[in-house]
Amino acid sequence: MKILSWNARGLGNPNAFRHLRLLVSQQSPHVLFLMETRLNNNSLSRFRQSLNFSHGLEVPRLGLSGGLMLLWKDDIDVKLNNIGSCFFDCYMTSNAGQQFHFSAFYGSPTVQNRSDSWTLLRRLADVAPLQPWLVIGDFNEILSNQNKSGGTLRSESQMNAFRSALDYCHLSDPPFQGDCYTWAKKRTAVNTLKERLDWCFVNDAWNLAFNQPKVTHLDYFNSDHRAISVVLSNASISHNHQRHSRFRFEKLWLSDPESKDIISNSWLNDQVTDPICGVLNNLESCARSLQSWHIKKYGRMKHNITAAQKRVDTLNNSPSRLTK
């Protein structure tokens, strides 16, 4: 099953619609989520028929901006939970029988309203907290300044609000293929501003039930946003599957000389042509290597500490100790 998400930046002219048809013909998605359609009401039927989708939902534009559309094939079952100006929320069953909570999400493009987006995301998480959940869309925010190239640095408090919302929802981003950035301002300019604003997230319940989806950053198709492709695996989850989580540096490593060698070796990869992508790839490689080395050398310290504390509590509360 394949899901596509794309901020089209307007679909009211023939040229934009031709690029949309090209995207759909190349990717053959089962589910298509479109943002910033800038279409009036009652546009759904024309798009659904022209793009060969059996079902759909639409949110008309507000003024000259906004507008959402969700289209899906006949072999996908969708039960709508809620709908709003910036989201679709539903239960979805794939053509392979996978059942999960699905949210198509559009974060506020204005910073002053971004907190409302994170409040909405938390409320969507509370709809079915124990169900596998996949969220996709243009969140209009980055997780760190590593997710941008050019321009001024993003405020740490602004990014932390996004990270806090994801932590509350137990959401993490699977690995992706393609370019590091999904949005570009004036793409033809020499020093253009680029950011990763479009994301796919899955929650902990998803990682326990299914394999990680395959996420790919596609072309722009005449928009300033890349389309995002998410392919769901039909296979059951493997027993050695590990959840992808955000990296945290351990202070313990500073006192171990082996960590220096691991970090140095991780920065020897210079096979990519884009220097920014090279830096990001090396950072990810370094994080994976350090985490793997930590588990092999030190074990799962938090788990071991918790287990030791339980054993101490058991001994302290044993009948032989209480009678002394």
Automatic annotation (TrEMBL):
Record domain Endonuclease/exonuclease/phosphatase: where: 4-212
Gene3D superfamilies per record: Endonuclease/exonuclease/phosphatase
Lineage: superkingdom: Eukaryota
Gene Ontology MF terms: catalytic activity
Protein name: Endonuclease/exonuclease/phosphatase domain-containing protein
